[in-house]
């Protein structure tokens, strides 16, 4: 006899941004969700935040799934008992400790997934009894509004764990991509950090202001990257990759040679970037700006979904 999604439970350890975002995603798809946190007040804060976000999403016409706000909210509960349900801080010892406790509570066929953002899965899971059921799912921040999730198995992860994890993420409306082998900081961060590093260098060398550097992405590259990636962009900007190489290969290599050594984020340049950003977005207005961002990310996702239906 098959079970419905409402009869299946997803346990989430950690009630911060990543934790409560995953809770909303799974509830929108009809799963029962238990959010665990060692601090009762953290659980209550997460549930209150979920209430506010679901109501706002419904008002904006951006609520995910077919369930109502009340139906989604009824599927999410909080607990301070780990046995009833991992989105804890990026600390290897902490991750290992939490997963050791989870490991002792899990059935042999359970999937143990970590929302690690840089720690490779073999480091976290090497001492677990159920290490073959362990996998890392690295979401894009903020997870509810940016659907990409990197799926990183350890060398010993069972193949069916990868398949089922991909299916579960796709059911929630997320877009899973598989990292085929362990690599420091995975793929999303490596691409992002290469961009941040070059932006830092350009500002340090006086090429452009912080605001204009951000516009290069938001009003230029980011517009097309929201629909196609950099490799397909290259493919379309010429008659295929070979033609792109013939046209731009030497120039690309020459420019790459000018990037220089990595910069450390410190000193006067750090202060200048902080001050320039704070002059436009004061620290006490960060939550307003985050909400502004999230609404636009949700609207963009709705647009993409609507376009894909045509």
Any chance you could write out the topology, listing elements then pairs?
Blueprint: E1 9-13, H1 17-28, E2 32-36, H2 40-59, H3 69-74, E3 76-79, H4 92-105, E4 112-114, H5 121-125, E5 134-139, E6 148-153, H6 159-171, E7 175-178, H7 188-204, H8 210-225, H9 230-236, H10 241-256, H11 267-280, H12 286-309
Parallel strand pairs: 1-2, 2-3, 4-5, 6-7
Antiparallel strand pairs: 5-6
Helix pairs in contact: 1-2
Domain 3-hydroxyacyl-CoA dehydrogenase NAD binding: 9-181
InterPro entries: 3-OHacyl-CoA_DH_NAD-bd, 3HC_DH_C, 6-PGluconate_DH-like_C_sf, 6PGD_dom2, NAD(P)-bd_dom_sf
Pfam families: 3HCDH (PF00725), 3HCDH_N (PF02737)
Question: Describe it for me?
Answer:
The chain is α/β, with parallel strands linked by helices. The chain has helices at residues 17-28, 40-59, 69-74, 92-105, 121-125, 159-171, 188-204, 210-225, 230-236, 241-256, 267-280, 286-309; strands at residues 9-13, 32-36, 76-79, 112-114, 134-139, 148-153, 175-178. The chain contains twelve helices and seven strands. Strands 4-5-6-7 form a four-stranded mixed beta sheet. The longest helix has 24 residues, at 286-309. The model has no long low-confidence stretch (mean pLDDT 90). InterPro entries: 3-OHacyl-CoA_DH_NAD-bd, 3HC_DH_C, 6-PGluconate_DH-like_C_sf, 6PGD_dom2, NAD(P)-bd_dom_sf. This is Lambda-crystallin-like protein.
